[in-house]
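Chapter summary example.
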Amino acid sequence: MDLELIRNLIIPNTTKLVLLSLDGLGGLPHPNTGKSELETARIPTLHALAARSACGLLRHVGPGITPGSGPGHLGLFGYDPLKYQVGRGVLEALGIDFELRAGDVAARGNLCTVDREGRITDRRAGRIATDLCVSLCQRLRAIRFPGVKLFVEPVKEHRFVLILRGAGLSGRLSESDPQSLGVPALPVKALAPAAKRTAALVNRFVAAARKALAGEAPANMILLRGFDQLPRLPSFPKTFGLKAAAIAAYPMYRGLARLVGMEVLKTGATFADEVATLRQHREAYDFFFLHYKDTDKAGEDGDFAGKVAALERLDGFIPQILSLKPDVLAVTGDHASPAVLKGHGWQPVPLLLWSAYCGADPVTEFTERACAAGSLGVLAAQELMPLILANGLRLTKFGA
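The structure predicted for these 400 residues follows.
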């Protein structure tokens, strides 16, 4: 999608646009029932909304390519994730309001569990409480090396951010997280000659962290991924002519919204808090990005029933969102997290797009199989924002 083309077609309007992202929305059939999480869940409101919407599937990167949450959401925001790549460390740092500077290298960290041989037994250390993460990060802050300043900042549960600040650093680094169990953490390698010193520093930090956490249970080791430095992306508000706000409880998604220039609204820890924030600020903004995390958390844990329950909880909030009378409501996800995979999947995710002008199609259920027959077909994720704008009567015609 050509962002400059869209920018030149923007026309002002007062319509209200809402993009609801169900993190890890897509699923796969359970082997015992042949039904996916969406097909199993009791979600009458979403089904009814799909019957009044244009439906389809979104693909975030390309066939067979499994997207992370960063590229998944960049696509939803209208950015080609292959052109605009951002490491997760940057997003996590921005999400906790860390003042990231040009030249800083940031990485997303997991506190994890390893056995006596150093093999990973739990990549998330049982999703420890955030209070314990804060305490362990304080211990890791005692690690210091000459020539570089280290910051270790807690995020939520097992997640933390590592930031390196100093001259001559590079974010061109491989990850220490193998994203599998029964194997040791990987050494961090330089992906460019200029990154050799940074890789050596990170590996020294990992070795020191393992010693510092050796007596802990379950969080006795760390994993690092998503190394990057602060990029420069086109402004979302300027490109799409919107006063845009983001409402997300999880820091990483606030960071992503902040990176593209959205205003990040303060909200609470639950989705009920997020909806209340939407209601409070409804008149002040044109566009709202609303994030729902529970579907992804259950999918990554392999908890099929938990993901079904998360979908059913979300369905109960849809009437509240509709009561605020958005002119356009898009409901989709940033990637699939099928419980049977216990992680992200490459499968396209369902999409419904509701407005007075959407041109409803024969789809009557918000599921993977039903939406595959929708009028929108299979779209690249970055093609969604122009459709949202068009349905909000915010694009003029192209050409004479």
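To summarize the output: The chain is about 30% helix and 20% strand.
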